[in-house]
Design brief:
The protein has about 280 residues and is mostly helical. It has helices at about 10-40, 65-70, 75-105, 110-125, 130-140, 150, 160-170, 175-185, 190-200, 200-215, 220-225, 235-240, 250-275. α1 packs antiparallel against α13, α3 (about 75-105) crosses α12 and α12 (about 235-240) runs antiparallel to α13 (about 250-275).
Length: about 280
């Protein structure tokens, strides 16, 4: 009698699902309560003193904070500026980082080691040490008080970390895959775009979400380079709201909600790729 073929053990899948459930529960416990308090505070009526204890359901519920935040803080214009910066900088940063990481993965081992060491050294340089020379360059070019200085770091992949992550991802692909591309006479650019990049979509999703959050919440660069209020991004607009009277804290919290929602949406859209990478 022929024995029934035994399939793969479901234990690894159960363990993976368990870890994913635990991870989701941890994220919910850490991040959801502050978000609920943020939304509840934004729905409090402005002008009243802060409550002695946090309230999940304010009494009375009011949307006046959002109306005043949009009016006093110029959040609509600031949101548009932040969207412009993010729409240009995030895809450009991911494309440049992925292309640089792919090039590193295809270099000779000795050259690759040198480039990796140089990237690690660049990663250890504090960003604040580059503020003065960067400002001098942009001022010499007449690009201060524009959105250009907020976008140009994407031309370098934004951070050496992104390049190194892509390098490790492309290097993990089978060598036979690259050999097959050579047999098919695919150019390096076509191999990167049509073969390698689609196979590291979880990495792309994760780095896209990370780049968007860092770009969206960038406060230091706009503070240094942007002076015209019409060019303020959301972090600068929130800073203006924070200078209001303390009894108007719902106005600032309403602005914080407006600034937080896009980052949450991007994370929700990306999480399926970098948490459920087998789908």
């Amino acid at each position: 009698m022929r024995g029934r073929a035994s399939g793969p053990s479901p234990l690894p899948d159960r363990v993976a699902r368990l870890w994913r459930t635990l991870g989701a529960a941890f994220v919910i416990l850490v991040f959801v309560p502050p978000l609920l308090l943020l939304v509840a505070g934004s729905l409090t009526e402005p002008g009243l003193p802060p409550p002695p204890t946090p309230q999940l359901v304010p009494d009375p519920v009011s949307t006046v904070g959002y109306e005043r935040a949009l009016d006093l803080g110029g959040l609509l214009r600031a949101s548009f500026n932040s969207v412009v910066v993010a729409v240009v900088a995030v895809p450009l940063s991911v494309l440049v980082a992925s292309l640089a990481g792919f090039a590193m993965a295809r270099l000779a081992p000795r050259v690759t080691a040198t480039v990796v060491v140089a990237s690690l050294a660049a990663l250890m340089v504090p960003a604040t040490t580059l503020l003065v020379p960067r400002f001098a360059i942009f001022r010499f070019l007449g690009l201060t008080d524009t959105l250009v200085p907020l976008i140009t770091p994407a031309l370098l992949g934004t951070s050496p970390l992104y390049v190194l992550v892509y390098y490790l991802a492309f290097r993990a692909l089978p060598a036979d895959l690259y050999d097959a591309c050579l047999v098919e006479d695919l150019s390096p650019m076509r191999t990167w775009w049509r073969v390698a990049l689609p196979l590291v979509r979880p990495v792309t999703a994760g780095l896209t979400a990370l780049t968007f959050v860092l770009t969206w919440s960038n406060f230091l660069d706009p503070l240094i380079y942007v002076y015209d209020r019409d060019l303020f991004t959301l972090p600068l607009a929130l800073r203006s709201l924070s200078l209001l009277d303390p009894t108007n804290f719902p106005v600032f919290l309403a602005g914080a909600v407006v600034a937080t929602v896009p980052a949450l949406l991007v994370f929700v859209l990306a999480q399926r790729r970098f948490l459920h990478h087998d789908d």
